């Protein structure tokens, strides 16, 4: 394979300047107006490049979905290359001013959301522009969603609709551990548990009470007992809140539970066990709500071929591409579960996702944008 675009063909200075603009627009997932401000900017850039743009109004109080497409004949039903990106971040407003200012230190550029994943989202747009200018073998759909960081509840159906006609999916989540890309991800389930008992005075009538916190303590141990490092199953009680005061037997307690599973078999087993858990005390009740949020993303045979194609392009660009399996979920879980060959972690290299140390390596922008562009152009219908 001979590449069409090299890192030298990427205007990394202009790319970096544009990335700073994106990061300066803070986009907490729950602030629809803030996310839409960045969507407005991206939409202008896409239209200026004469790309086809469709914007779907937000639902569930969240931001809009922005779909950017390569030109194609009206009514075309050709298989597409689907690119998934998100504009929201986990960071609240004011983080740039207080905890994580935009600053450069050598090859590192710091900023909220710069690694996860505004750099990857911008790289995808730039790569799409290049692929359209030079010619791609398949139509390309690039989708910017507003809510990936909180589970993609408002955007999942739209992504799955596009995936039904996709030959491949490329996800521009950040690279891992020095530039590795993601070939598989664990499935993610989320549960909220409310334990209800009976309040009483802790000093004068303790025998009348039924402690929700004591029942919660037992439940935490039962949940944590489902962990299985050998199989790759993790069950974590992330928060616990309960009680009304020091001298009151607590009538209520709430748990938030995170579950990660490597495959469909483990998903059915572990979620099945959690959803039927019962209290020992008949005067205590459990209310367990939740489900699988993202199905397991296992690497398929076609996924292996997709990785091999990307690795061949990367080698021509001087990049040694390695694949990793991660416990974190992404929108790639949805497309992989539908049988679409999916490759993830194609964004910028860096570190510190979701922390006040979040940064990218500036030197990764141009070569990895070239990788994306060449991959978009080279993929062809199966």
TrEMBL record:
Gene3D superfamilies: 3.30.70.360, Zn peptidases. This is M20 family metallopeptidase. CDD domains: M20_CPDG2. The active site is at 88, 148 (proton acceptor). Its cofactor is Zn(2+). Residues 183-275 form the Peptidase M20 dimerisation domain. It comes from the Bacteria. PANTHER family: ACETYLORNITHINE DEACETYLASE, BLL0789 PROTEIN. PROSITE patterns: ARGE_DAPE_CPG2_1. InterPro entries: ArgE/DapE_CS (IPR001261), Bact_exopeptidase_dim_dom (IPR036264), Pept_M20_glutamate_carboxypep (IPR017150), Peptidase_M20 (IPR002933), Peptidase_M20_dimer (IPR011650), Peptidase_M20A (IPR050072). GO terms for molecular function: hydrolase activity; metal ion binding. It comes from Aliirhizobium smilacinae. Keywords: Hydrolase, Metal-binding, Zinc.
